[in-house]
Amino acid sequence: MIDTYDIVVVGAGPVGLATAIGLQQRGLSNFLVLDQTRAFRRVGQVIDLLPNGLKALNHIAPSAYEAVKQTGMEFLQKAQANQNPETTINKQKLPNTSPQWVYKNLNGEQIHSFPLSYEDWFKDYGEGRVSISWYDLQTTLRQQLPVEQVKANHRCINVVDEGNTGYVRLDFVSDAAIEANPYAHWSNRQNDEDTVSFNSEHSPQQFQKKSIRARLVVAADGINSTIRRIVYKDSPYSGLARPDYSGFAALFCMKITDIPPELSTELENKFFQQERIITITNDRTNDQISEDSPSMESPRMLLFRRPNAQFGYLLHLPLNQEDLTEKSGSALIALTLQELEKANFPKSLTQLVALSPPVNIQSRPYYIHRAETLSPWSSGRVVLVGDAAHGMPPFMAQGANQGLE
Description:
Layout: E1 3-10, H1 14-25, E2 31-34, E3 46-49, H2 51-60, H3 62-82, E4 100-104, E5 110-115, H4 118-125, E6 130-133, H5 134-142, E7 150-151, E8 155-161, E9 168-174, E10 178-179, E11 195-196, E12 208-219, H6 226-232, E13 244-256, H7 261-272, E14 277-281, E15 300-306, E16 310-318, H8 321-324, H9 330-342, H10 347-354, E17 361-368, E18 378-379, E19 382-384, H11 387-390, H12 398-404
Parallel strand pairs: 1-2, 1-12, 2-7, 4-14, 10-11, 12-19
Antiparallel strand pairs: 3-6, 4-5, 8-9, 9-12, 13-16, 13-17, 14-15, 15-16, 18-19
């Protein structure tokens, strides 16, 4: 007999879990949250919950809001105590121990800054800013729900509207390798032993298949959403079923050692000036970045220094997707140098990039779900939320924050 629920949420990320918490908060108890991961474990990077996301979470459930805020404060205290960038930046961001995040132009002149403290954000926006690891956010939200109603090891492979019955049937496989997600990962990071490519040859007999029925399905299964592909298939929106390349990518090097003393001194005197992390752009104005800003179409470098005179960087670049295809190591470094030289970045920064160890450099194309047409985010008894609906590049953590909204 197939288990039946009022609501099934597919995806136990922050948006899926927040949805379930909201249902519970409003008296709905016959729901289930399912996720494809084999087990909930410490993966993911650091994200910022900003005023719009925190306000939304507070409306969803004040208890979840307080728990997440407390976890974020503890994370920040621990990061500050460690003073180690590797604990707080694996993707985009580093909480800065200074009170502001500083933007500088190619001459080392400050052109913009914004405060980092919870209090400053609260003063300006009526709510604060909290940095938190993705895993800690997921765990804190999971703890708001009954443990038996959030289950791992369920990868959704099909959704069928059963018509007049009033139910949707979902088919899952368990004990299966997770489909590789090309839309939301860094190169060379896909090392999980339970992750395989979409075309991997696994016998169906290795999988355990299970079906579940629900009156409503909430698809929170991320930018590579299986349910989105099924909902949009054979519809006027079939061309929007999969993410599109955004035109931007990131190149990242966590650690550069053996830096000549004179280069280290120049970087300190011209750019860092006691800061631990800065953003460098060739925008020459004091205006904040806007759609018409030169910075939107030119490299933006997040430059940070680690203990023991080590440096690292994260570059956002407008690139053709073909430029990244099959490139790694030295080829990525050469591509980076080419783009920085075209944007007239100073020699000190290109010298630093040239010193990048090929084994340390990684790339990530940014994908989006375009909204050029008024494509529906629901179909019958299925609704898309979060990145499954409006996937976007991870700028200012708005994927998570807007998902919570």
